[in-house]
Amino acid sequence: MSGQALGSYSPFHVTFFIVALFVFATLWAPFASAQNTVPNADAGKDFTVAVAVEGHFQGTATDADGYLVKYEWDYDGDGTFDTLSTTTGEATWTYQAVGVYNAVLKVTDNDGGQDNDTVKVTVVEGNTPPTADAGKDKQVHAMDLVTFVGIGKDLDGKIVKYEWDFDGDKKYDWTSTKNGTTTWIYTIPDTFYATFRVTDNGAIPANATATIKVLVFPANKPPVAKAGVDLTAHALETIRVKGTGYDVDGKVIKYSWDFNGDHNPDRESPTTGETLWYYDTPGVYVATLTVTDNAQLPSTGSDSIKITVLAPNQAPTATALPAVTATVGNLLFFNGSGSDTDGYVVVYKWDFYGNGTYGWSSSHNGSTYWVYDKPGTYKARFTVVDDVGATANATRTVTILSKKAKPVPPLIEFNLGFVVALLIGLGVGAAAGVGGAYAYLYASIARKYKKVKELEATHTGAEDVTFRGTQVGEREPPSFRGGGDGFD
Predict the structure, then answer these.
(1) Which string of DSSP letters, residue by residue, matches 98-112?
(2) Can you tell me whether residue 233 is helix, strand or coil?
(3) pLDDT tens digits, one per residue of 130-182
(4) Can you tell me the mean pLDDT for 456-460?
(5) Does some domain include residue 101?
């Protein structure tokens, strides 16, 4: 038959050939269709989503004897397939109304085989996700007890779960239903990323996370601060605080004082915790000393004292005796007094020359004596100091005159040669008369001199004690050498 034209075949042969093809096709078709296995569709697990929130569909399918060529989704079950993909059954869809929807996944294989599966989607009112705040990045020491403060907020509900993953291993180490505050200890130096997560109470619970970096330094013992003792002072009075500090594994490199409790340093020093301060207003204040050590990551230690501030101090008052006039060498009485309405006087002192140099002081009273050795006019200053340190002054004018010449009895001496001469020259009788006169004159002058001494040594006033008699270093009345009595 090869090489023969179709027209050379008889009608019988053609008819037979067509019938044979029809029979073959009819008999073979069941066998051919039986060789294709339809695919298997899986629309995923039922889930809930909020209105206007994108829902995620996790459709999958398998085909035992071929491959899938088409994935189709009918999200609302109305028979119309809304999306088509040739590669995956995963898809997203956003529902705009609350309700329960039966979403259908239809898959088709390369032989035309198909399969369907349905997933129930519950659409609820929308839920606004919460917010999480893990705080600021931290720098700590190994073995420190580190405090973590996480804050969560939810605008349309409340937070029902707080969680912390301290080391960033995706496993949450701590959980609470009350708040996000807790503590943790890192045992080795390293850098960690701590994650804080909150979950709200929405119909579809939403969560939020926040992460901070925690830099852990080698272990360090913090320094110790000693603020001193509680103090009491007056407003506007200068206060001296004497703080100290030490560090067992290093040294203190900064001392800081916060006197008004605003957590800002008012005084700082790299070497000492001793400083000065004053308060304007009466009240009770807490002053805090903070010391800082020299570790790679510095540590601090703090201590506080209470400072009671009273109303402003009232200065004391001082009074002194009125002006006085005296002579060089006179012993003068100085009497000053002082008082303090809101305290007491602690020091009384005299500057006798008014030159800023105090020649006498006492803690008991302001009474004393002084002798001027040069003539002149002096503004003696009397000063009192109260228990707060306030002062008051009073002035006394002292006029010192030059010393008058002291009356001196005639220096008449009893001379034996003179008496003998008189006896020989005038006769014993005349000599006896002269001798008697001499004895009377000497006794009279001596009595007058003694009386002057006694009278001028008498206290002449409450503020002026004057001794005008024999001064230290002078001799007693000299021997009589003759002449007048020397008195005016």
Answers:
(1) -EEEEEEEEEEETTS
(2) strand
(3) 999 999 999 999 999 999 999 999 998 999 999 999 999 999 999 999 999 99
(4) 42
(5) yes
Tell me, yes or no, if the pTM score tops 0.70: no
* Distance, CA of 225 to chain centre: 12
pLDDT digits (tens, 9 = 90+) for 382-400: 999 998 889 999 999 999 9
Question: Does residue 103 sit in the same domain as residue 50?
Answer: yes
Number of H helices, E strands in the chain: 3, 32
Domain count, the chain: 5
Q: Where are the beta strands (DSSP E) in 125-205?
A: 131-133, 138-141, 145-153, 159-165, 174-176, 180-185, 190-200
Q: What are the tens digits of pLDDT across the range 46-87?
A: 999 888 888 999 999 999 999 999 999 999 999 999 999 999
Whether residue 3 is contained in a domain is answered as no
Domain identity same for 62 and 79? yes
Per-residue pLDDT tens digits for 232-262: 999 999 999 999 999 999 999 999 999 999 9
Question: Is there a domain that residue 82 lies in?
Answer: yes
The arrangement of strands across the sheet holding 300-310 comes to 231-234, 300-310, 283-293, 252-258, 267-269
* Of 364, 362, 403, 359, nearest in space to 380 by CA: 359
Q: Do residue 418 and residue 485 come from a single domain?
A: yes
* Chain mean pLDDT for the chain: 84
Give the angle subtended at the CA of 100 by the CAs of 98 and 106, to the nearest 5°.
125
**Residues 396, 325 share a domain:** yes
* Sole residue written with tokens 């830099």: 215
How many CB atoms lie under 10 A from the CB of residue 185? Answer: 12
What is the Cα–Cα distance from 407 to 451, expressed in whole angstroms? 12
pLDDT, position 430: 52
Question: End of a domain among 372, 401, 430?
Answer: 401
Q: Can you give the residue range of the structural domain that contains 380?
A: 317-401
Average pLDDT, stretch 85-107? 96
Q: Is the pLDDT of residue 5 over 60?
A: no
- Domain CATH code at residue 386: 2.60.40.10
Helix, strand, or coil (residue 318): strand
DSSP class of 97: S
Q: Among 217, 245, 262, give the residue marking a domain's end.
A: 217
Beta-bridged to residue 146, according to DSSP, are 184
Same domain? For 248 and 275 the reply is yes
Determine, yes or no, domain membership for 1: no
What SS3 state is found at 30? helix
